[in-house]
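Entry type: protein chain
Record version: 2
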Amino acid sequence: MRFHFKTSYDQDIRLFPDWWNFSLYVALLLLMLVLPWLIDGFYLGEVTNVLIWAVAGLGLMLLTGQTGQVSLGHSAFMALGCYSCVNFMELGLPFLAAFLLAGIVTGIIGAIIAIPALKLHGVYLAIFTLALAILADDLIVILEPWTGGVNGYFAPVIEIFGIEINRWAAPETWYYLALGTSIFVALLYRNLLRSPLGRAFAAVRDSEISAQAMGVDVARTKTLAFGLSCAFAGLGGALMGLFAGAFNNETFNFLIAIQLLMMIIIGGLGFIHGAFLGAIVIAFLPQFLSILTDNLGSASIPGLETGVFGMILIAFILFEPMGLYGRWLKIRTWLELFPFARRDMFRRQKTYLKTERLR
């Protein structure tokens, strides 16, 4: 059993709680760096897809898991990030500049949309954002000069410092691009949580009235959370569209937003690890079902993937609301306290304070 005896406030917000955790993440990073030499091209592409989903999932996690605002429209901002990146590249900007600028533009537009949207709460906010996701399909068709309409776009050639990023000729290049982006977004997310703004996000999530009483500008905090969330989703959308090779108005439909929400719930709301664990389920489960049906000698079953996803989501909501990472935390705590762990030590707690009823 290990204890963290803290003697200063700086230790409470440090990036890694101790050297043991730091060494584990270093070992994981080394494993990810040598992964292209350990697996074949197919599975390397699937891992790349997991990392891309995780980047987009971190965006929704920041809004829903940290600030408590539900969004069903992040597919629209993923599309905005993708088309913005391609248009900036057509203007002559190098990929890295176009990629980062697309995320910034998506975040600014998301923050502007959030000003009226975040006056809504709960299911009304979810319906508003769902309308954005449905409306994005029509907007992509209408804005044909910038989006290609129903014909869509073919992904342009990507070069970084003279190295061509090609999914088919050199899949490891795409893998390292997705890995670098996911590490960048995860570190930005983690440092954001250590800042006063990150504490304000948690305060607004737990109780808006209590946060306002402590001097938190609730409207400003929600707007910043929405803007940053959209920026991360825009980066994930740009990677997703470019990785697919071709995309149009049907690529970023509202089902992508539903999958994003399912991903963070299954992985664990409020945890950075939850976005990656949920991305593994979202990316690998369709492949697993396809391999399973092939081995059973049957053709593809219509609606099988959707049905399995739905059953998994219902199971997590009923039996493990904290998701996969929450379950791991419980197992780790039980092992650390064994044999003194008690059965009722993980009893569910109320998420919101009673003062929330006064809103």
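Comment: The two ends are 43 Å apart (CA to CA).
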